[in-house]
Amino acid sequence: QLAATAIGQHLAAQRLKQSERLLADTLRAVPDLIWLQSAPGHLKLGNAAFERIAGPVHEAAVPPDDERAVLQVRNRQALAVNDLLVAATGQPSTSEQWLVLPEDGSRALFEIITTPMAGEPGQPGSLLGVARDITLIKRGARALAEQERLVDTMFSQTTDAIVLVDPETGGFVTFNDA
Predict the structure, then answer these.
(1) Residue 23 belongs to some domain of the structure
(2) Domain span at residue 169?
(3) Do 109 and 149 have their domain in common?
(4) In the chain, which ranges are E strands?
(5) 47 close to 35: Cβ distance less than 8 angstroms
(6) pLDDT in tens, 70-102
(7) How many domains does the chain have?
(8) Is the pTM for the entire model greater than 0.85?
């Protein structure tokens, strides 16, 4: 009986280690920033992408002459901009923040989603944060909008008549005033 219990506990411990390793590998592989807080400002974990941008989760005081560390602290503060709101309302929040990349000092726009996680009964929950670099997406959207504006300007100012027809329905899509 005692041997069976010991074997069962050993197997359970092995499964737990495998599960923890899988979770750690998954978090390490995700390119987005992921972090978990027990309360606003009290980090429990952060993946490698988070630590690159916002510094190590468990870090001592930041030396004021360490420019990279100072940038990481500022980024961490920017990522936490909606934490109190999420904690107070219990509702997820999405925002966009510019962060300075410590590697080269360039700026990148991140979409930040902060969501509450339920705690044990009678205990406060945690906050889960996920941030994705959307700089290229926003640049592309701006470039597309600019191209549309130029085409609209050319379309409306030409003296030639232009009609756009939907090839599937044969109906008019639009036409200019010429």
Answers:
(1) no
(2) 141-175
(3) no
(4) 33-39, 42-46, 93-100, 107-117, 126-133, 163-165, 172-175
(5) yes
(6) 888 888 888 888 888 888 888 999 999 999 999
(7) 2
(8) no
